[in-house]
């Protein structure tokens, strides 16, 4: 339980949990689902830490009703899931696979039956492999195929999804997938990956129009943000920090809010056509903020391929991912967004916030995770402090409901409020689940008068 009473949150504050399709669904190749870039990327030896893939993952495709019951028991008011593009359009375009949409319709209806708002993310990194074969996000046509996909999903679910999120963390997908190749599709283009940024954002803007054609629900994007901490006090260190901030925190926000691309990195922007920036800046209703930790930055060595060097931040507790635990970084980030974008900034929802620890059942079968409780408590207090600072934050989603398949780390990193035995699929709520259940119940009851 909380070490001190939790602060009050605004009436109507959205309490949620998040997952993504490839990380939990499993059922690869089931009911007409086509291959994704992660199906392809995960199989060659050496790419995934434990040699696993998401072919089964948490088997959520078959156990979704059990997982919705866990959400209902937790008391959340919203569930952020992702739709697998290859389930809906197995080749990335062309004919819709009805069975794929049928699954998401069952999921959405199950959520609504339990009083939980469906929050649907359209792209969480699982690009259909045929689109990657044609160039992936380096190919402008992928943006248009994404709009077609958004249209198909919204035509079926637009009357029931309560919040649409177009893209999840386009910076991470660009940098890890196309920049340094440690995520699917495994390309190593460094800063030449800029077309991936532009085409993802163009796809976002086109999808906004497609969603609004079928749904009156608000539309958002979920960006990953990392406050930059300058390591060193030289002008070169300061310049490196500014360059990294432009890349990580502004590249996918400045153009969304009508400010164009930041010029600091000198990208070749010949892929940007007349009218593209207007499409990208289509008004959104919510900005999704995914926060995990700040980033230490210093000047690179002479001749380095990038204009910055990333260095570990010291003096903080660490998660099992070796990420620093810096709750005040979330408050700082939310304030930075307010100060930089002012009246152009829409309301914010924290669409991911969480931590990996090596959680194991004890002799009684319980799964104690006191470090996660401390993490969540501190980050919720940071959100409340940001609200007190004048930032409009209207929701908080924990990453993640379930221990899942964690991309290149396979099954070795556990983020869940619920422990999953990956051999049997058995779910066991952790102590953080019980803690958060009480926090949400208290918040939803409101203050005692």
Automatic annotation (TrEMBL):
Q: Which Gene Ontology biological process is one annotated for this entry?
A: cellulose catabolic process
Active site, UniProt feature: 169, 352
User: Which InterPro entries does the protein's record reference?
Assistant: GH (IPR017853), GH_1_N_CS (IPR033132), Glyco_hydro_1 (IPR001360), Glyco_hydro_1_beta-glucosidase (IPR017736)
Which Gene Ontology MF annotations are present?
beta-glucosidase activity
Q: Which domain of life is it from?
A: Bacteria
Q: Which residues form the signal peptide?
A: none
Binding positions (substrate): 23, 124, 168, 292, 399, 406-407
* Alphabetically ordered keywords of this record: Carbohydrate metabolism, Cellulose degradation, Glycosidase, Hydrolase, Polysaccharide degradation
Q: EC number(s) for this protein?
A: 3.2.1.21
| Gene Ontology CC entries for this record | cytosol
- What Pfam families does the database record attribute to this sequence? Glyco_hydro_1
Catalyzed chemical reaction(s): Hydrolysis of terminal, non-reducing beta-D-glucosyl residues with release of beta-D-glucose
Please give the PANTHER family that the UniProt record associates with this protein.
GLYCOSYL HYDROLASE (PTHR10353), LP05116P (PTHR10353:SF36)
> What family does this belong to?
Belongs to the glycosyl hydrolase 1 family.
The protein's name:
Beta-glucosidase
């Amino acid at each position: 339980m909380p070490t001190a009473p939790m602060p009050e949150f605004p009436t109507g504050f959205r309490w949620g949990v998040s997952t993504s399709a490839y990380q939990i669904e499993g059922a690869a190749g089931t009911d007409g689902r086509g291959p994704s870039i992660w199906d392809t990327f995960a199989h060659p030896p050496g790419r995934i830490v434990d040699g696993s893939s998401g072919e089964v993952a948490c088997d959520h495709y078959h156990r979704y009703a059990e997982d919705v019951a866990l959400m209902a028991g937790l008391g959340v008011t919203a569930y952020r899931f992702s739709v697998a593009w290859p389930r809906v359009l197995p080749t990335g375009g062309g004919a819709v696979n009805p069975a794929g949409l049928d699954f998401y319709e069952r999921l959405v209806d199950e959520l609504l039956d339990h009083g939980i708002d469906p929050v649907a993310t359209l792209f969480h990194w699982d690009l259909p492999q045929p689109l990657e074969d044609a160039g992936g996000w380096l190919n402008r046509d992928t943006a248009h195929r994404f709009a077609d996909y958004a249209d198909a999903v919204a035509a079926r679910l637009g009357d029931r999804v309560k919040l649409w999120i177009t893209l999840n963390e386009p910076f991470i997908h660009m940098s890890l997938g196309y920049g340094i190749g440690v995520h699917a599709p495994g390309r190593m283009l460094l800063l030449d990956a800029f077309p991936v940024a532009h085409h993802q954002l163009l796809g976002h803007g086109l999808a906004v129009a497609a969603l609004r054609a079928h749904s009156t629900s608000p539309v958002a994007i979920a960006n990953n943000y990392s406050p930059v901490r300058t390591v060193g006090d030289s002008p070169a260190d300061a310049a490196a920090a500014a360059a990294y901030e432009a890349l990580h925190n502004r590249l996918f926000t400045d153009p969304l809010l009508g400010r164009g691309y930041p010029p600091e990195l000198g990208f070749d922007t010949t892929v940007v056509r007349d009218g593209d920036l207007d499409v990208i800046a289509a008004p959104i209703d919510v900005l999704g903020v995914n926060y995990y930790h700040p980033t230490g930055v210093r000047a690179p060595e002479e001749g380095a391929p990038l204009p910055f060097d990333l260095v570990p931040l010291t003096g903080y507790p660490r998660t099992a991912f070796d990420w620093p635990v810096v709750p005040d970084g979330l408050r700082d980030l939310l304030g930075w967004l307010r100060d930089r974008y002012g009246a152009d900034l829409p309301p914010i929802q924290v669409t991911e916030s969480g931590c990996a620890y090596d959680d194991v059942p004890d002799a009684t079968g319980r799964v104690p995770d006191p470090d996660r409780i401390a993490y969540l408590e501190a980050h919720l207090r940071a959100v409340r402090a940001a609200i007190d600072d004048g930032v409009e934050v209207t929701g908080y989603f924990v990453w993640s409901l379930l221990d899942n398949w964690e991309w290149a780390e396979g099954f070795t990193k556990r983020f869940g409020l619920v422990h999953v035995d990956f051999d049997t699929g058995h779910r066991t709520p952790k102590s953080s689940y019980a803690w958060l259940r009480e926090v949400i119940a208290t918040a939803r009851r409101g203050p005692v008068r």
